[in-house]
Amino acid sequence: MEPLWHLFFIIKVSALFFTTDNLQNIYAVTTDYKVVKHDSSGQLLHTYTNKSLGQLTSLDVSNPMKMMLYYKDFSTIVWLDNTLSEIAETQLAPIGIIQSPVACLSQDGNFWVYDEADERLKKINSQLEVMHESPTMQSISDKHIQPFLMKEENQQLFVSDSSLGVFVFDQFGNFLNKIPTKGITNFQVENNQLIFKKNNQAHIYQLKTMEEYSIELPDTALQLQIESHIIYLLLKEKIAVYPY
Question: Which label site among 38, 50, 168, 220 has the fewest CB atoms less than 10 Å from its CB?
């Protein structure tokens, strides 16, 4: 049965993309180089701006106390606390990683990057030492992989390529399998489910059973997030929040 949609609230913001944390805080990356944080009722809490590094590539808030901002044009990570105050900055070039299209937090407090030069995923610690790395992508796929987004959840690493699917690795970088659904750019992993938008529907792919179902969305969305029976939709110049 399709849910009956009742709008909870709207956040007026012109955003490129957004994300949510497990406390239902909402983080939007705006078109004018800002990160804005709203609480679970839509109240604006904090703002962060850094125009020196260009447009933000990705925002990982899986640890709301130490968030990871990645700027791929400068191969630079910026770390923020829960008030969006800057904690530290990590540059990848000094450790030989000149180009990495994606980066994300690891649940053990380290982080992952994709080293484009040797086509490997690498887990790196706070001392900038490589702890684990994947096989070469060339050995996994007969087609060139172009990672668009990367996230770790439940000790598994998910890497999307919009034309090939989502590649799944374990916490040590060992390749596990590929989810062949194409066209996935932004996605979310929650409760052993891969959640993504396609054809204005929320698609939920069960990682254990490989079953998939969809929910028709109440509006034409650019992106979606789901947290604790609340669905968040990125629309033109706003984020709409619905319980479901």
Answer: 220
Residue 90, CA distances (Å) to 18, 66, 86, 128, 233 in order: 22, 13, 12, 9, 31
CB atoms within 10 A of CB 203: 19
For Cα atoms 17, 112, 141, give the angle at the middle one, nearest 5 degrees.
90
Cβ within 8 Å of residue 52, ≥6 positions away: none
Structure tokens at 37: 């944080």
CATH number attached to the domain at 9-243? 2.120.10.30
What's the Rg (C-alpha) of the chain? Answer: 18
Distance in angstroms (rounded) separating the CA atoms of residues 232 and 51: 27
Task: Calculate the CA 172 to chain-centre distance.
Answer: 19
Instruction: Give the max Cα distance, the chain.
Output: 53
Of the candidate ranges 3-12, 41-50, 121-130, 152-161, the one whose mean pLDDT is the lowest: 3-12
| Predicted TM-score (pTM) of this structure | 0.94
pLDDT in tens, 133-151: 999 999 999 888 999 999 9
Closest CA to 204 of 231, 176, 222: 231
Average pLDDT, the chain: 94
Closest CA to 53 of 31, 77, 30: 77
